TrEMBL record:
Residues 1-55 form the Reverse transcriptase Ty1/copia-type domain. PANTHER family: GAG-POL-RELATED RETROTRANSPOSON, PEPTIDE SYNTHASE GLIP-LIKE, PUTATIVE (AFU_ORTHOLOGUE AFUA_3G12920)-RELATED. This is Reverse transcriptase Ty1/copia-type domain-containing protein. It comes from the Eukaryota. Pfam families: RVT_2.
Length: 296
């Protein structure tokens, strides 16, 4: 970069915009430990007991019009702080985004759910993302959906994550705009969103001289294929057409985005009913979320 831009090398990067960066011979660790502990003090929760998961197994919230209202400013401040923390903590992404839907008129149950997330952070204050060195440069995407999970409008939630080799580089949890009438439709929308992100990433890598032709997108379409009695290759073409129409994207000639479909029931990155302690710990391990103490 110094050949193209005027820049000075001050020292090794260790802290940037709230992100703590630790570089070792094996890889790079990114966390927000200091920011997390400051958050405990900000909301006077440093003495609270930790929790092993960010939300209970029945984690879906409701409007609960009869509930006791809470201070909107405090609630929004907590949501804003947690959203910034998601930059290095994808394990709380779904929980925080779910609580963020009720900022207009938060109730006591919503505040309790937010405090549950903070208590999970108290249990895991040193967690961050590990980026190992000498990893292959294969781009892989994962998608999942929580069919009709929102109790208010019955919309589904899409969950996606993208890996570059063994490094998690992008993730999202977003409520879908349309109301899906079937599990297949919800999976289509989630896969389409993930596919659009993968297309953007392949183009970005191309700008750096890295050309990726085949990008696997792993989802549960093989299960849908059996349910709908449609061959997987037909489903691939169907989803590609869905992506092109929905996101107004032109696929480069010869680029195969959906090269593999496999069931990922063990990869439920977006379903609250799977947030059992052992399963959740295994999944965040697959996302390369580790404790900073493991690096010492």
């Amino acid at each position: 970069m110094s050949k193209k831009f005027e820049m000075s090398m001050m020292s090794e990067l260790k802290f940037f915009l709230g992100l703590q960066i630790k570089q070792t011979k094996e890889g790079t660790f990114v966390s927000q430990t200091k920011y997390t502990k400051d958050l405990f003090k900000k909301f006077n929760m440093q003495e609270c007991k930790g929790m092993p998961t960010p939300m209970p197994t029945s984690g879906h919230l409701d409007l609960t019009k009869d509930g006791e209202p809470v201070d909107q400013k405090v609630y929004r401040s907590m949501i804003g702080s947690l959203l910034y923390l998601c930059a290095s903590r994808p394990d709380i992404m779904l929980s925080v985004c779910m609580c963020a839907r009720y900022q207009a008129a938060p109730k006591e149950c919503h505040l309790k759910a937010v405090k549950r997330i903070v208590r999970y952070l108290i249990h895991t204050p040193n967690f961050g993302i590990w980026y190992p060195k000498r990893s292959c440069f294969n781009l892989v995407g994962y998608s999942d959906s929580d069919y009709a999970g929102d109790k208010v409008d019955r919309k589904s939630t899409s969950g996606t994550c993208q890996f570059l080799g063994r490094s998690l580089v992008s993730w999202s949890s977003k409520k879908q705009n349309p109301v899906s009438l079937s599990t297949a439709e919800a999976e289509y929308i989630a896969a389409g969103s993930c596919c659009a992100q993968l297309l953007w990433m392949t183009q970005t890598l191309k700008d750096y001289g890295i050309y990726v032709k085949h990008v696997p997108l792993l989802c549960e379409m093989k299960v849908l294929s059996k349910l709908l009695t449609i061959p997987c290759n037909i489903l691939e073409l169907s989803i590609l057409k869905f992506v092109i129409i929905s996101f107004e994207i032109t696929l480069p000639k010869g680029t195969l985005i959906l090269s593999m479909f496999v069931p990922i029931s063990n990869w439920r990155i977006n379903s609250p009913n799977r947030l059992m302690r052992k399963v959740f710990c295994r999944l965040i391990g697959e996302l390369n979320i580790i404790d900073a103490s493991n690096l010492e």
